[in-house]
Amino acid sequence: MQKLGFAQRWVDWIMSCVTSVRYSVKLNGTLLDSFAPTRGLRQGDPLSPFLFLFVADGLSAIMKHYVSSGELSPIKVCRRAPGISHLLFADNTMLFFEANRAQAEKVRLALDQYASATGQSLNFDKCSILFGSTCPVNIQEEVRGALNVTTLVFEEKYLGLPTPDGRMSKGKFQNLQMSLTKRLIQWGDGHLAQPGRETLIKSVAQALPTYLMGVFKLPFSVCDEFTRMVRAFYWGAEKGKRKVHWRAWDDLVQPKSKGGAGFRDFRIFNQALLARQAWRLIYKPDSLCAQVLKARYYPNGNIQDTVFSGNASSSSQAISYGLDLLKKGLIWRVGNGRSIRVWRDNWIPRPFSYKPITLQGRCRIRFVSDLLNNNGSWNAAVLQEFFLPADVVEILKIRASPRQEDDTLAWGPGKYGVFSVRSAYEFGFEEAHRSSA
């Protein structure tokens, strides 16, 4: 602890908690005599996950040492991408290395060093390993033998999410559908009033797929199946018998301010959650995820101008799906105007149309910086020459920066230009119903 920079007094407090802890077991409703564990904190103790994070830094340091010394080769998705040797998620660890016996033995040595230093032994029965599709079978056997991994298949789920192996078909989300069906069957006893059904739908049924929707693009058939189940439950269907639906579902998904019940559209909500992932890539370009995706898909550009290919990974396709919605609401805040393309980018703060309504014609002006004077003010003469009066009025409302700051991206529908899933959902809902009208 002291090597990590914590004060001795703080270390003493933590060690006092670790050494003085006592447990008591409840048997048939009666608490038995308390006892002190011989191995310190156990799983389930509130302090345990926090201390585990400090200990896991030791494994991270060992892996970094082997990578820096050249003894371990990290995995790269392409030549320009940063190398990844390990990822830590709470008490889950993923290790990446080249598939050969020498590398596997080095990883085993790192794990043995970690176990010797911390006293945490590895349970190999719970370990699984995933190889590339081109890795020979004999190499796979050598690696498994060096690591003492007996499991032949990788886990179907990791951190509660389906492992993205191939296309994310409807079958990947069957467990989620079964979980929702089970909940609705438990509630559908015929005694719940409609307000109670509405509350259960909004607080549980619609929240149940949120975790998955924030990572993957669910097939439209899955979203429509969720909608069908929720709709039947709301109108009181029992034992497979359909009851009368007194209002169209398209009316009920409208917000309450417009006469609806405020139910979510699963398709649009899925896209709004994925738009948040795309937003993070824009505002956190130094994150590991952003660096990997940039090296793989847009090495010389930016994500808002990127079109992901059809053979991209399922995670990348999910981000692309959210990006489609994000692009419609992104708007540039004018600084020096050098990054903003006049005719292609969103930069005029006007509802429903952030681009100029003026046709480009033969105008050769490309960037907003060409519309600004040297002191950062708008060149009114140039604006009146090339733009319609309606555009000129809106452009002059934009407060130009005399300090010539860099242009920045903002989220137009959100308050103060900050993205939120709620504003993205409302924006996507309006866009969908405007296009279908």
From TrEMBL:
InterPro entries: RT_dom. PROSITE patterns: RT_POL. It holds the Pfam family RVT_1. Residues 1-163 form the Reverse transcriptase domain. This is Reverse transcriptase domain-containing protein. It comes from Aegilops tauschii subsp. strangulata.
